[in-house]
Amino acid sequence: MNRPASERYCLTPAPGGLALVQELLNTAPAGRPTPADLPDLLADGSLGVAQEWADLAVRDWARETGRADVRLALTDEDLPRLRCLRDQVRRALAAGDSGGDAVRFTSAPVVVGLAGDGTLTVEPEGAGARWLASAVLAEGLLAQASGVWRRLKICRNESCSAAFYDRSRNNSGVWHSVRGCGNAAHLRACRERRRVQA
Questions:
Q1: pLDDT at position 177, please?
Q2: Taking the C-alpha atoms of 128, 25, 164 and 159 in order, what is their torsion angle to the nearest 10 degrees?
Q3: What CA–CA distance (Å, rounded) separates 137 from 130?
Q4: Higher-confidence residue: 74 or 121?
Q5: What are the pLDDT digits (tens) for 131-170?
Q6: CA atoms 142, 147, 151, 154: torsion sign
Q7: What span, in angstroms and rounded, lies between the C-alpha atoms of 170 and 52?
Q8: Which phi and psi (to 5°) does residue 175 adopt?
Q9: Among 47, 77, 127, 142, which is most exposed with the fewest C-beta within 10 angstroms?
Q10: DSSP for 51-81, written as a single string
Q11: Element containing residue 124 per DSSP (H, E)
Q12: Worst-scoring range by mean pLDDT, 11-15, 51-55, 172-176, 178-182?
């Protein structure tokens, strides 16, 4: 599979079209301490990098969802829009059940179709950042309807903050890697307890 943003964090992709949302979220180094090693794939001045990421992510999305290939052409003006979308989706996921401010996307149109067998379909529309926002929000809506949206999470390790799909049986995961981020959190907590007791 071609999920360059999530693969650089060694993450298992979310299922189906939800992997596109995870990919967008992982285009940023988020809270990682070494942004030079893991650059923001949507940074200003990195249109070539962003286009390469989008080509791979959208091709993979089309394959996963059984759609025809989409040719997406990004412009320099699309990059700040995509970063804004990424940040808003990230904040919504991080807020979780505690809620947050509602955000309305009026420039991300989707087409709802009704197939001959009565199946509803949601298709992204637009060009560049508008199409990508439409696809990401449509996949988020479909994931909510199927009950898997709550499994897409932001790692609680502040120096990581990678978007991961929680595959735990009871949906209780809080770190993208129990060995890495989880052990680091437990070690910090243990040291703090010892410091307080001393």
A1: 59
A2: 160
A3: 11
A4: 74
A5: 999 999 999 999 999 999 999 999 888 778 889 999 988 9
A6: positive
A7: 36
A8: -120, 145
A9: 77
A10: HHHHHHHHHHHHHHHT---------TTHHHH
A11: strand 120-124
A12: 178-182
